[in-house]
Amino acid sequence: MENSRFLPCRPLIVLLCLLVILLRPNISLAAPGPHDEDADVSVEDHQSGENNGGGATTLAAPEVDRSELCNIDTSSFLPPPYSNISGMVCAPVWNTFILRYHKREENLVTFILSAVFTTGWVGIGFSKDGMMVGSSAMVGWFNKEGHARIKQFYLQGARPSQVIADAGELDLTKVPPAVVLHGPMIYLAFQAKFEKTLTRQPIILAFGTKYPKHHRLSIHDDKTTILFDFSAGSASSGYANPGQMKKNHGILGIFAWGLLLPVGAIVARYMKHKDPLWYYLHAGIQFVGFLFALATVVLGQQLYSKINARIPAHRSIGIFVLTLSILQILAFFLRPKKDVKIRKYWNWYHGWFGRIALFFGALNVVLGIHAGSAGIGWKICYGFLISTILVTVIILEILSWMWRSETTPPPSFQMNPIS
Asked: Pfam families this protein is in (predicted)?
């Protein structure tokens, strides 16, 4: 009973825990990966005369002149049809990574990615939003025996076990992809067809120095995300992906539906003996919570337009709970007086609409965490926050029931006199 006085402080403690965990820097790229429908990737081994299973320099070798790498004649060692394609655009993109490409009619694009190679793997990913999760990638490597391998991968999650081989969204043509080692450089060549003309496309580049085992990639040693303009043949290395926007969207949603709005509802239910303090606290907290919920939806809409996200359930529930919140705000201005008969119906409407909004708001946060492939820290902290709110409600409900039992007088019975 003595600890119950500290219950109102618990949400503030939980909020600090939430902000510390959610605002820590996270790594969005674990290994290159592709998408959900399986692709029948044709794999062909190609080895050059210089193939000894490794190169002589590192991937980030500073002594390599990137401008000179585009002058290498790839027609002498790449297999056809990659060796006889003329007019390819060549652009240095990152460290020693060089991207060559040639666009044809019907949105058919031939890619040749090269980089200085020692051991491990090299990959290029195509992303919708600049994030690794959900992207499709082509990854090439040479195993310990010196055999060349190239496969498409789909990154289902951030863990290496979630990087799925022979799956992805890249629509590869019937021309077999190839991987070739020429001198210190590894070359990945493949053709893919796109739904629309490639213009500005988020590209993910990564490499690992450990050999893949049973087609399972190791954690990358380094990675980057660029925004490549296939119309101009240039890359923007400072590509600002929407990862921070996703994080802000999640923080606002958790702060609104996981803390402020539930606390405002708790105040209305269990502090009515502090009249009129409870009313001003309830109205103030709920209004601030509504502003955070509104900002969550606005930021989510911007995020939806930016990355063209396909999460209709999360988006629809978000709009639904925002509509309920607007109705609750309107109910505040249309609040009838206590002595009016319609007041009991208003109380019923206001209470149950609020409960429905809180339930679906909390559910939507869970859906958002899942859809955004958030880390375990988000799940643990939000679960802890919701658990704290529920435990607080249960304790206050029990105390309220005990108080009502103590203050309610027993019913009196009037005895009929004996005549």
From this structure: DOMON
Q: What is the pLDDT of residues 44-97, one digit of tens each?
A: 333 333 333 333 333 444 445 566 778 888 888 999 889 888 888 888 888 889
Alpha helix ranges (H) inside 30-153 = 66-69
Predicted TM-score (pTM) of the model is: 0.51
Q: What is the pLDDT of residues 180-208, one digit of tens each?
A: 988 888 999 999 999 888 888 888 898 98
Instruction: Characterize the bridge pairing of strands 200-208 and 121-126.
Output: antiparallel
Q: Per CATH, is 6-25+242-407 categorized as 1.20.120.1770?
A: yes
Q: What integer best gives the mean pLDDT of the chain? A: 78
80 CB neighbour count, 10 Å cutoff:
10
The partner residues of 182 in beta bridges, in order of sequence, read 185
Where along the chain do its domains lie?
Answer: 6-25+242-407, 66-236
Residues written for the chain: 419
Pairing type for strands 185-193 and 121-126 reads unpaired
- The answer, yes or no, to whether residue 284 has pLDDT greater than 60, is yes
**Tokens 């600049």 sit on residue:** 130
The third-level CATH classification (topology) of the domain covering 66-236 is Immunoglobulin-like (2.60.40)
Q: In which order are the strands placed within the sheet that holds 136-142? A: 163-165, 148-155, 136-142, 121-126, 200-208, 222-229, 234-236
- Per DSSP (E only), the strands in 219-361 are 222-229, 234-236
Residue 79, φ and ψ in degrees, nearest 5: -75, 160
By C-alpha distance, which of 104, 103, 113 is closest to 138? 113
